[in-house]
Structure formats: C-alpha cells, structure tokens
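Reviewer has doubts. Consider these tokens.
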Amino acid sequence: MEITNKAVDNGKAFDWGKTSADYAKYRDIYPEIFYKKIVQRNLCIKGQNVLDLGTGTGVLPRNMYHFGATWYGTDISENQIVQAKKLSDKFGMNIQYQTIAAEDIEFSSNTFDVVTACQCFWYFNHEKIIPKLSHILKQNGRLLLLYMAWLPFEDRIAGASENLVLKYNPKWTGARETMHPIQVSDCVYQMFERVYHEEYIVNVPFTRQTWHGRMKACRGVGASLSQAEIEKWETEHYQLLQDIAPDEFEIKHYVAMLELKKK
C-alpha cells in the first residue's frame, strides 16, 4: 500500500510492500540486549497479551516469542504481513497477524497488557490512535515505543551509505540521525504518562552483503525509489562498500525506548 505523509520524506510516497522480501531477510538485526532490556522492564513476558503495531515482518513478536507472551501483530502492508506469517509459521510460532492500519484497529476493552510500536509510531495519527490504545489496554497497561538507528556522524560507513541514499532520494527524512530520546505528540500525555526512557549505544555486525541489504530495505531506497533508480543505487553502493568497507564490520547504532503507562 502506497503511503503519502507530509511529515515523512516531505510527502514523497513510499510503500513498504515493495521491499518486504529484503525487509524480511535483512532487517532482523536487533541485538540481544535490545530484547533483554524490554524484559527487564517486565514487559512482553509470560502471562501478558501484547499487540505489536506496525509489526512489519514480525521481527519483534518472533524474537520475543520465547519469553512467553501471547502476541498479536498488525501492519498496513499486506506484503509485510505475508512475510510475517511465513516466518512465524516456519518456526512454529502461534502469532496472530492482521493487515490493517494502526488507526483502524478494533479490539475489546482491557484486551492487552502491552502495546508495542517499533520504528513506526511517528507514522500514526496520534489524535486518532491514542484513545483506541487507552481503550484496549488493561488498567496500568503499557505503551512501549522502540527505535534503533545508525549514527551517520559517528560511523564512517553508515555516513557514506546514507549520503548515497540522499543522492537518489534527497527528500528522504530518515537521514542525519543523532542520539536522542523518543518524542511524542502532546496528545499522547492526555491519556498516558511516561514512566521510563533509555537511550544506549550498540554495535551491530554486518557483512558487505547484509549491510547493502539493510540499506536497500530502508524507506529511502526500496520503499520509495523506482526500479531503475534502485538498480543504479545498488551498483554505486556495491562499489562504495568495496572501496571503504572490509568483508565484515560493525555499524554503530543507538537504541531508544519509551515506556508509557495508561492513566
């Protein structure tokens, strides 16, 4: 499904469905500490019902499945959900998925202990979705927002790859990231209160191939460029990595998490 959002990429249309195969293959990259820190907050564990909004290919539910929570995942892209189901079925995971926009979800009141949103909360209409999340969460239920991004000013390879994306897609607003807490609209705090936040640095291992795949699967390339543009970008990016990157390397990222409690 093609999406146009004035606040994202200056209104340039993007479609995660175009890059679902690469997304499934190359974007399951969160390190173990990413999941451990969630569990340390007593979230997404056995005995809890968890809804993952914007689940994509189901990265969060699949990687946290063994902690025992009952997971549900929704995403606006049918192609993403197809990949999520395929990967979950492959590993025998009973995760329920639904293709639906986050703003259109319909669940009974007091259904979930936790709602998660990883790499996606800024896409949503907060005025519309926040009352729904308050409705479906149990008393003292948690809304957990998660984010991880490479640091282009601190990592040479990440910075060079990012510059090449901007060459082909100058409207892309996913560039020039720096470490900072997750910010949300004021309306969120009408029904939720912040109870915890944390930001920390991780080094994520890649090969030339997997980093190339990760970059291709970003919104600025695979989700928004034409096929001809993607092919040109790929040729240049392959050469760039040959010139500046060893066979194996790490990319410096930062991770941010924001835990909110239903009032």
